[in-house]
Design a protein that fits this description.
The complex is a heterodimer of chains A (221) and B (240).
Chain A (H helix, E strand, L loop, with lengths): L1 H16 L1 H22 L3 H32 L3 H6 L5 H31 L6 H26 L5 H12 L1 H16 L6 H27 L2
Helix pairs in contact in A: 1-5, 2-3, 2-5, 3-5, 3-6, 3-7, 3-8, 5-6, 5-9, 6-7, 6-8, 6-9, 8-9
Chain B lengths: L9 E12 L2 E12 L3 E6 L5 H8 L7 E6 L2 E2 L4 H6 L1 E4 L11 H12 L5 H10 L15 H15 L3 E5 L7 H17 L2 E5 L3 H7 L2 E6 L2 E7 L17
Parallel strand pairs in B: 3-8, 3-9, 6-7, 7-8
Antiparallel strand pairs in B: 1-2, 1-4, 4-5, 9-10
Helix pairs in contact in B: 3-4, 3-5, 4-5
Classes of the chains: A mainly alpha (221), B alpha/beta (240).
């Protein structure tokens, strides 16, 4: 646990020092939401119906940029190899980075909510639950995303490979998160929210456990 | 084969060490020993396998064949134990570019579990003449300054076995003196040093033993003072 906190502190410091990237990624997500709204047109009913899906698509597209960026600094001057040789436990490095990415993606999601409200007129008063669903969905993206970002960071085609590998894997997370968010925005007369959140938690547990085990094999020669 | 120190204590021993990248063998059947407290010069032409040898011994990469033990620990089976007693000055600076020198050293100190303060880290940076730029991002540093920061990290690690890969590359004359001073300090402290360098005469004046790699193979070993430029030979692709 101590090493995870040490790794997390390092990643939060890196994120703070490169915060201009985070702002750029947020703007990218907001632009994606704007373009999706243009694609639907001025049909306010349809906009509201698709708001949750577009929010998560925007977050997912932005996440590939954030995740790739998080390993860019590790690969420049082989800083990650330097940590492993200290020796820092690979699993702690993974969880530190995955938690850092999770916090970043959650903040990104929270930042995109006002954009969604304005563009799609998709307001909800269940804000704590919405932030909870965003946090759970972001966790489902960040755990495999951190692992795949580590794998692809060493390849030339990393910008293409990361979404190619990540998107199919996070489809169940995306479906659960979209459904749960949609229920929070449109109402939940059949009380289905708990089931979708449960599914989201289950995928999070699987991803966070497996990816932590696999990370050492990915980064060690 | 390099002779161990008079104490007979072996710090590094390699037997048939081989490593390939794709189809090319960067190291082929390399065997040698280094005694504790010795300073070994590893030399050879560009691409002869010097960096690969150091990276295998530091556990940055695994050997494809052969065995090596570093301070009694197998480099393939006991990587964590090896890493605890080895410090590697690599071609790569191992630093985070957006962070300052102080931040980078603090991160390394935390992972090493070392107590540290801003003052103690500034003291380390002063030793490598970087104290004035301690708070600047590493991305604004020159190649020589990055090398100095890497040297500060080696000092911070304070490992019993130090591996230096081209420590003089990119350094100015004061930087040369800095590396020389570091080597003398390490020798006085009884640390074992493996240094890859092209600077034959300079290296020979500081090192006890020397080995020459050519195309991944060990072609010469003996006292560093006896090494001549003609011993470097030509270059060629190796097979294990």
């Amino acid at each position: 646990m101590k090493w995870i906190l040490v790794a997390l502190r390092k990643d939060l410091l890196l994120q703070w020092r490169t915060r201009a990237h985070v702002v750029a990624i947020l703007l990218f997500g907001a632009t994606a939401l704007l373009l999706f709204s243009f694609a639907v047109g001025p049909n306010s009913e349809a906009l509201l119906q698709f708001a949750a899906g577009f929010l998560w698509l925007g977050l997912m597209l932005s996440s590939t940029l954030a995740l790739a960026e998080s390993f860019q600094t590790e690969m420049e001057e082989r800083a990650l190899e330097g940590l492993l040789l200290l020796p820092a436990p690979a699993r702690a490095i993974y969880y530190g980075k995955a938690i850092g990415n999770w916090l970043q993606l959650t903040l990104l999601g929270v930042g995109l909510v006002p954009v969604m409200v304005v563009l799609y007129d998709a307001a909800t008063w269940r804000l704590p639950e919405l932030v909870g669903v965003l946090a759970l969905g972001a966790a489902g993206l960040s755990a495999p995303g951190t692992l795949y970002a580590a794998m692809t960071a060493q390849t030339r085609a990393r910008q293409t490979l990361l979404p190619l590998l990540l998107f199919p894997l996070v489809v169940p997370v995306l479906l659960s998160a979209v459904k749960a968010t949609s229920l929070l925005i449109l109402g939940d007369p059949m009380l289905q929210l708990r089931a979708w959140v449960g599914l989201l938690v289950a995928f999070d547990v699987i991803h966070w456990s497996l990816c932590g085990l696999l990370f050492e094999r990915v980064v060690e020669d | 084969m390099t002779t161990p120190s008079p104490s007979g204590d072996v710090a590094v021993e390699a037997h048939g060490l081989s490593r390939r990248y794709g189809r090319r063998w960067a190291l082929a059947d390399v065997s040698f020993q280094v005694g504790r407290g010795s300073i070994l010069m590893i030399t050879g032409r560009n691409g002869s396998g010097k960096s690969t040898l150091l990276r295998v011994l530091a556990t940055a990469i695994r050997p494809d064949h052969g065995q090596a033990r570093v301070l009694g620990h197998d480099v393939a089976a006991a990587r964590e134990e090896v890493r605890r007693c080895v410090s590697l000055l690599s071609h790569y600076s191992y630093n985070y570019e957006p962070l300052s020198a102080l931040d980078n050293l603090a991160i390394a100190a935390r992972f090493l579990g070392r107590a540290h303060s801003r003052e103690s880290l500034l003291g380390l940076l002063a030793e490598v003449a970087l104290a004035e730029r301690a708070d600047d991002p590493v991305s604004t540093y020159s190649a020589g300054m990055r090398k100095r920061l890497s040297l500060a990290r080696v000092l911070l690690q304070d490992a019993p076995l130090v591996m230096l890969d081209e420590p003089y590359a990119g350094l100015d004359p004061p930087g040369f003196r800095l590396v020389d001073g570091l080597l003398r300090r390490l020798a006085q402290r009884g640390s074992t040093v493996l240094m890859a360098t092209h600077l034959l005469e300079h290296g020979a004046s500081l090192c006890d033993q020397g080995i020459v790699l050519e195309g991944g193979r060990l072609t010469w070993s003996g006292p560093a003072a006896a090494l001549r430029p003609s011993d470097l030979g030509g270059s060629g692709a190796a097979t294990p």
